[in-house]
Specification:
Distance between the termini: 91 Å
Number of domains: 1
Shape: globular
Strand content: 15-25%
CATH architecture: 2-Layer Sandwich
Order of helices and strands: HEEEHEEEEHE
Oligomer: single chain
Strand order of the largest sheet: 1-2-3-6-5-4
Structural class: alpha/beta
Largest sheet: 6 strands, mixed
CATH topology: Beta Polymerase, domain 2
CATH superfamily: NADH:ubiquinone oxidoreductase Nqo5 subunit
Helix content: 10-25%
Radius of gyration: 22 Å
């Protein structure tokens, strides 16, 4: 037998060498989730929406979930944004075991080799909207995380520059929060004449 040929026993040995925390193992479970019958992938509960897989991770498992997805071929972070559900009363499509919270971070990934898309949803509490930064995995997340911080007040731990990106540094509040006061916007040149 040549060195290039592989026997079924070799394949079995290779499978045994994969660790229990293998990133592509769909059977990974998260003890913090109460629904034992839910499908899981990368430590998150799996649902489907409009043909795309949706992973429901927790703030604690978010970074591990995203690292596992990247290691499994999801090579590009397409988008990262947030939602404020303060006054939202309709069903939110959350699976059993995931409690609805005021804020949600939504991240979209794509695997360019297979074309598969993945949406990751994470619920964040009102009093402490904090989640891990994805900067070390996808450096392009830097500006997107700053925007979520600026507009929603969500902080990303270990971010290299957690500062405002759209509003002035001295701006008070986060304009896309549903409880942000709606009022007049100060016009810088209000007294200027429009006569030409």
């Amino acid at each position: 037998m040549s060195d290039d040929e592989q026997t079924p026993a070799d394949d079995e040995a290779a499978d045994d060498s994969i660790s229990d925390d293998s990133v592509s193992d769909d059977s990974i479970s998260d003890d913090s989730v109460s629904d034992d019958t839910a499908d899981r992938r990368y430590l998150a509960i799996v649902t489907e929406s409009f043909g795309d897989l949706v992973l429901h991770a927790t703030a604690d498992t978010y970074l591990d979930t995203m690292a596992a997805a990247k290691a499994d071929g999801f090579d590009q972070l397409i988008d990262l944004t947030a939602v404020d559900y303060l006054a939202y009363s309709a069903p939110r499509g959350l699976p059993d075991g995931i409690d609805a919270a005021r804020f949600e971070v939504v991240t979209h990934l794509i695997n360019h080799e297979t074309g598969e898309r993945l949406r990751v949803r994470v619920q964040l509490a009102t009093d402490e909207p904090v989640i891990a930064s994805l900067f070390d995995l996808w450096p392009g997340s830097e500006a997107l995380e700053r925007e979520a911080f600026d507009m929603f007040g969500i902080e990303f731990t270990d971010h290299p520059d957690m500062s405002r990106i759209l509003m002035p540094e001295d701006w008070v509040g986060h304009p896309l929060r549903k409880d942000y006061a709606v009022g007049a916007i100060p016009v810088q040149f209000k007294a200027a004449s429009n006569v030409r």
